[in-house]
Amino acid sequence: MAEDADAIERLFAKIQSFEWNEDKRRANLRNTASTSRMPRGCLTVPPSSADRIAMAKSGIRSSGSSKGAKSRSRALSKARGAGSSRRGGRGATKGGGITVISRDDLNRTKGKTDWARVDALSDTEIAAAVQGDPDAVPLDIDWSEAVLVVPPKKKAISIRLDEDVLDFFKRGGAGYQRRMNAVLRSYMRDRKKKERA
């Protein structure tokens, strides 16, 4: 029991004597910048008391990893290797076409719509504007006259055709068999009309 108390006292003595050394942190960043996949800004905050306790237990002197050292935590290793950028980080971006605005600025910006004029429109004026607009879709579609058309079942066959006829239909691109079927159907309908007459 006394050994545990001594160990705890030594641990707290290490924690109390720990001082953050900004120069050492910068030197570690310079040494590990080329090999580390961690973002540069992640090591700028001094460690919390919980971090200091964990570092004292494991014998780590600072929160930066030394060059070539492996992470003690599997989760940290996975987090470091999970980046989508190529090694060495992302290249500099051109800031020419990027405009940064705050959420407050976004709420203050006005569009080009005159909402007071829109609110003042009557139903008849709106209906007249829709009727005069060639791009407007009809609002009322009458489905009472709709007819369900079930395409006839197709049957796979082998047929011999003249090469120039086949080339003519294939030049039209994909769907040449459907086009050939449509031509044959047109011929069939025309023959049936003549037979009835």
Structure write-up:
The structure is a single chain. The chain has 197 residues and is an all-alpha fold. Among the domains are: 2-80, no CATH class; 163-196. The chain is 49% helix and 0% strand. The protein has nine helices and no strands. The chain has helices at 2-17, 22-32, 49-58, 74-81, 103-108, 115-120, 123-132, 163-170, 176-196. Helix 1 crosses helix 3. The chain starts with a helix and ends with a helix.
Q: Summarize this, please?
A:
The chain contains nine helices and no strands. The protein is mostly helical and 197 residues long. Among the domains are: 2-80, no CATH class; 163-196.
List keywords for this structure.
197 residues, mainly alpha, 9 helices, elongated
Enumerate the spans where pLDDT stays under 50 for 5 or more consecutive residues: 63-81
Main sheet overview = none
Write the H/E string, N to C.
HHHHHHHHH
Q: Supply the number of helical segments.
A: 9
* Rg from Cα: 38 Å
Question: Helicity level, as a percent range?
Answer: 40-55%
Q: How do the helices and strands line up, and which of them pair or pack?
A:
Layout: H1 2-17, H2 22-32, H3 49-58, H4 74-81, H5 103-108, H6 115-120, H7 123-132, H8 163-170, H9 176-196
